[in-house]
Amino acid sequence: MAGRRRVRRWESGPALLELLGVALFVTAVYVVVVRGGGTLLGRTDPPNLALSVFATAIVALGFQPVRRRLRPIATRLVRGERAAPYDVLTRFVDEVAGGYGSDEVPARMARLLAEATAGRYAQVWLSINGRPVLSATWPPDAGSDGHAPPEHGVHGGRRALPVRHAGEVLGTLVVQERERQPLTPVEEQLFAGLAAQAGLVLRSVRLRAELAVRLAESAQRARDLRASRERIVATQDEERRRLERDIHDGAQQHLVALAVNLRLARTPVARSSERAPAVLADLKTAAEDTIDTLADLSRGIYPRSLTDDGLAAALQAAVTSSSVPVELTVDELDRPRGEVAAALYFCCLEALQNAAKHSRATGVLVRVTRGADVVELVVSDDGTGFSPGVASGGSGLANMRDRAESLGGRMDLNSQPGHGTVVRIRIPATDGGR
Predict the structure, then answer these.
(1) Is 387 within 8 Å of 407 (Cβ atoms)?
(2) Residue 107 is part of a domain; what is its CATH number?
(3) Element (H, E) at 422
(4) Is 219 within the bounds of a domain?
(5) What long-range pairs does 98-106 form, CB within 8 A, spacing at least 24?
(6) Residue 27, exposed/middle/buried by CB under 10 A (0-12, 13-18, 19+)?
(7) Within this chain, do residues 65 and 100 fall inside the same structural domain, yes or no?
(8) Residue 203 lies in a domain
(9) Which of 150, 254, 323, 402 is at a distance of 20 to 30 A from 100, taking alpha carbons?
(10) With contact defined as beta carbons under 8 Å apart, do 31 and 52 qualify?
(11) Are 363 and 407 spatial neighbours (Cβ–Cβ below 8 Å)?
(12) CB atoms within 10 A of CB 130
């Protein structure tokens, strides 16, 4: 009972002082306008009706502004700097749920909560995409541990209450109590009342925050897509330069040499039947070398077996020529569309080349499976591995990622030193993933 009487005195003191101030305001308006104006007009008894109406209008218009200004003054005079808990709820409705922009609401809410509870600090957390995100802390420089808030209750003096609206959890309010100063029952009621009133406000704030997150993600995807396209163009240009160089230095030189040898062979073939077989044998060898060079060159461009016989046959031919033993498993699957098969084929070649060049692997496992709506390629080796966060991975991994993402897929890389490398490519089997 004594505590309840203290609460009543705590609440009624500023209200009485505020009422007294309003009464003084009304009296002052009446004296200044009616009496003072009547004196100027030479009519003090009875009061001038027009001046009385004017005074009444001033009181009606100024009542709420005067009362609003008197409230914090009365509170400071009676209680010092700290506001009453229930005054905070009124301020929340007037100031937070009113004209403040969405960006200011969490900070304003945290400030009111900290002032009302005298906590060491107060926080407002939003639930965005299913995870808690710190939106505001008051005081701004208060040292908090940065950990996600507890769902409900008190943990080490850190008191949390969820904020709900229409049955959905929108966020959490957190108050860090001061050492050996837990919240009083009145402050606990205030905490619960503020959490109950904050639902509709936090819904607007969360929608805005989610929109900002999605805009940031979209901007990042656009940057990634632009970088991917730039890498694809650069890779295509480099491939054209490499192809021109290989044709010039390889196939073209073989063909020039073959043409020269054919021209020179006319004389010994025509004049000496004994030298003819040796000359023709040399020409046959040169022609075979030219064919092998062209075959090697075409194999790196686009294998005919991929178009004619499908992905499984093309992969079988590719792993046969690998310098590292490869175990290939291709599940029974409908032939994927051409660009998907090509992407998986060249990603497999790139992964095999990386395993042979960099990992010192003694064996590689290649598996192709078909899910409900995706085709998956997994290439794992038993090599030395590496740290993806430290090593750049070169252009090979970037090329694989670009091929997969250009078709709406993705590449996942799992590797660590001493434990080999696993490359996983998943690409939608239909155009719907693009």
Answers:
(1) no
(2) 3.30.450.40
(3) strand 421-428
(4) no
(5) 102/204, 102/205, 102/208, 103/208, 105/201, 105/202, 105/204, 105/205, 106/135, 106/136, 106/205
(6) exposed
(7) no
(8) no
(9) 150
(10) no
(11) no
(12) 5
pLDDT at position 411 is 92
Is the backbone of residue 310 left (phi > 0), alpha (psi -120 to 50) or beta?
A: left
Total length of the chain: 434
Between residues 392 and 151, the one the model is more confident about = 151
163: left (phi over 0), alpha (psi -120 to 50) or beta: beta
Per-residue b or e along 82-109, where b marks 16 or more CB atoms closer than 10 Å to that residue's CB: ebbbbbbbebbeebbbeeeeeeebbbbb
Q: Among residues of the chain, what percentage have pLDDT more than 90?
A: 7
Q: Is residue 223 part of a domain?
A: no
Domain identity same for 329 and 354 = yes
Looking at the structure, tell me whether residues 316 and 427 fall in a common domain: yes
337 plus 234 within the same structural domain: no
Cα torsion 230, 235, 241, 246 to 10°: value is: 180
> What's the total number of domains in the chain?
4
Of 23, 51, 79, the position where a domain reaches its end is: 79
**Which of 53, 79, 105 is at the close of a domain?**
79
Q: Given this model, what pLDDT does residue 365 score?
A: 94
**pTM of the entire predicted model:** 0.45
Does residue 323 lie within any of the structural domains? Answer: yes
How many CB atoms within 10 Å of residue 211? 10
* Contacts with 170 (C-beta within 8 Å, 6 or more apart), sequence order: 126, 127, 163, 164, 199, 202, 203, 206
Mean pLDDT, rounded, of the chain:
76
The CB-side HSE value for 357 (13 A sphere, CA atoms) comes to 9
Contact (CB, 8 A) for 124 and 106: yes
In whole angstroms, give the CA distance from residue 324 to residue 60: 92
257 with 373, same domain?
no
User: How far, in Å, CA of 364 to CA of 234, rounded?
Assistant: 30
* 295 and 319 assigned to the same domain: no
Domain identity same for 140 and 259: no
What's the domain range around 151?
Answer: 85-197
Residue-wise pLDDT for 145-180, tens only, equals 567 776 667 777 788 888 888 788 888 888 888 877
CA–CA gap between residue 123 and residue 174 (Å, rounded): 5
Same domain, 249 and 319: no
CA-to-CA separations, 257 to 231, 245, 276, 281, 293, in angstroms, rounded: 37, 17, 18, 15, 13
